[in-house]
Structure formats: structure tokens, C-alpha cells
Amino acid sequence: MTPHNAKRISEMVISPVFRLEVNRCVSYVRYSQLLLVFALDGSAFAATQMITGQLIDETCYKANTGVDHKMPEDTPGCATTCAKMGQPVALLTADGKVYTVTGDLAANNNAKLIPHMSHKVELTGDVTEKGSTMTIAASSLKMISR
């Protein structure tokens, strides 16, 4: 077998296999990129917004479902007590939407939110929505009324 014949044989045998493998890799990368785009479905893209509402204890609100957040009469300061324990704090808007508050304001067991529990406030932060859950990674708070 001459070197020329060996080269031709390798091109005929190896090249198609190599091309097939390269095409598989390229297809896999394109497929992975497509899956990533669909997985993000817009929910990972946050939009900075200002939202006004009442700071509530999310757990208590969901247990006593309704637009009027009524704390149990036998537990004064229920929302404040739960927030101090690190329970999730949420912002309840006038139209009944509930945004779980995360980010800097919710750090250290809600330390910056506790003085404003049950008050009407305006939060500014990145809002995300995944399914029926809305979250605001709040970076600033403005007191509206007690």
C-alpha cells in the first residue's frame, strides 16, 4: 500500500465518521442552546419595578386566604412576630397580588422590613414571575402610610 492509497482510504473511511461525530456535536450544542432558551421562558429575566402594597406575613396570609389580611385576635403583632422569626414577608397589592420579598431588605430575618410590617409601602426591586409565584428582590423601601 502506497502512502497515496493510505491517504485516500483514510479520507474515505475516517472522514465520514469524523464528519458524523462533528455534526452530532454541533447538533447537540444547538439543541442545548435551544433547551436553555425554553427553560428560561422569560421567568429568569427580572424587570425593575416600583410596587405599592401592604407588608404582610406571607405564611399567615396564605393560611387565612383572602384580600383582607386579618391576623388572629389572640396574637397581637402576628406579622411582626413571624417576620422576626424569619418567616417570608410579602407585599400585598390593592388588586390582591402577592409578591414574596427577597433581597437586601429581607436579609437578617427581615430586619429592615420589621418596622414596616402591616404598613403601606412602596418597594423598588427586580420582579420575577415563575408560574403563579411572584417575587420582588427589593432594594429600597418608601413608607406610604401606617
Radius of gyration: 28 Å
List low-pLDDT spans: none
H and E string: HEHHEEHEE
CATH A-level architecture of the largest domain: Beta Barrel
According to CATH, the fold-level topology of the largest domain is: OB fold (Dihydrolipoamide Acetyltransferase, E2P)
Number of helices: 4
How many structural domains does the protein architecture include?
Answer: 2
Strand content: 25-35%
| C-alpha end-to-end distance | 93 Å
Structural class: alpha+beta
Give the neighbour order of strands across the main sheet: 1-2-3-5-4
For the secondary structure, the number of strands is 5
Structure report:
With 146 residues, the protein is of the alpha+beta class. The chain folds into two domains: 1-40; 47-145, NigD-like N-terminal OB domain (OB fold (Dihydrolipoamide Acetyltransferase, E2P)), CATH 2.40.50. The protein has helices at residues 3-40, 58-63, 78-84, 107-110, and strands at 47-57, 89-92, 98-102, 120-130, 133-145. Strands 1-2-3-5-4 form a five-stranded mixed barrel. It is elongated, with a radius of gyration of 28 Å. The N and C termini lie far apart (93 Å). The relative contact order is 0.16.
